Amino acid sequence: MQMENELLIKTLKNTGLFETPESDLRDLFALKTSGREAFLLSCYGNTSCRCYYLYSDEILITPCKEEGLLTIPQAPLGFVRIEDIPEVFSSLPALDLMKKDRKLLDKVLKEDKYIVFKNSRKCEYCSERTKRQYYRRYREEILDLRREAVKRGIDPLNVLVVDGKLSLEHEGFLTPYLAGVKLRERKYLVSGTSLGIAGGDLFAYRAEDFGSGAFLAGLIVGIEEIEKGTSEPSTCIIEDEAQVRVCDSHHGINQVAGYLLGSREYFRKGFVTAPLMAEYQIKEAEKRGVGVITFNEEGEIIFVDGKEMSSERQSEIINEVKNLAYLAREYFNFLLQKL
Fold this sequence. Notes:
The chain is of the alpha/beta class. Helices cover about 35% and strands about 20% of the residues.
C-alpha cells in the first residue's frame, strides 16, 4: 500500500499541479493542491474511487461527478454520514448544508486542500463480525485524522480523503483525471459527456478560438474558463482501460479504433489510458494510430498523441459543445440564486 501511494504521489506531483505539504504536516498529508484541482480530481476519478472532505464528526462532504452536475438539480456537493462508510457510500445533495453556510461551496472550490490517500479493502467475503470490526476501525481512523487536522490548525474541510486502489486488473481512478489534465494542457474542453457516440469514458473538444482548456465540471461551477485564442479544431474519444486489457481483442486499443470508425467522423482522435502501460502496449497503440496517456513506475507521465483523422463535421460538434458548456454554467448560476 505504501509503495502504491508513493507512486500516486509522484505521478500527481509530475502534473505540476500538486506539491509536497509543509514539513510539519508531511506525516499527516500526502500532497497539497488548490481547491480547484482537488475538486476536479474527485469529479473525474473512476467510480471505484471515493473522495470526501472532512466536514464534521458526523458528516463528510462528497463532490458530485460531472454527470451529477448536469442532471441533479439540488447541489454540486453531497454528504454521507460517518457511520455509512465505507460499506455504504450513497451521496445525498448537501442543499441544506449550503443554505446554512452560503460560503461552503467557495470554501470547497477555492481554498487550498491537503490530500490523504486511503486504501480501504472490500470485505464481501468476510464474516459479519470481521466486517463490523474493519468498518469501525476505518471510521475511527477518519475521525482521528479530522481531530489531528484541527489540532494542527488545519480546517478539516480543507482535507480531501482519496480512497481508491491502483490496480492493473481494473480501470484506474487516477487515469481519467490524468488524461483530462494532459488534454486540458492542449487547449481541449474535457468532458464525460459524448455528443456523438455511445461508448468511451472521456471526450475532448477543441474549437478554433480556444486559448486554453478546461474540464466541463470546472466551467459549470466557475473555477475554470476557456480563454479566447487561436487553436486547431479537434475532437477526441478516450477509453479508460485496465492495463491487462489494453491489447485485448474487445477492449483498449481495438475498442478505441472501433469507436472512431463508428462515430462517422464525429471524433478525429482516439486515446487509451491505463496505469503502467508496457512498452509493447504503447508501441501497438502507436502502430494503430491510437494515442496513449499513462504513467510509469517512476511516476513519469507518458503522452503519445493520436493520429488525426479527417472530418467534415468539426464545426457541427464544436458548436454543440459550446452550447452545452454555456447552458450548463447558466443552469448552475440559476441554482445558486435559489439557495
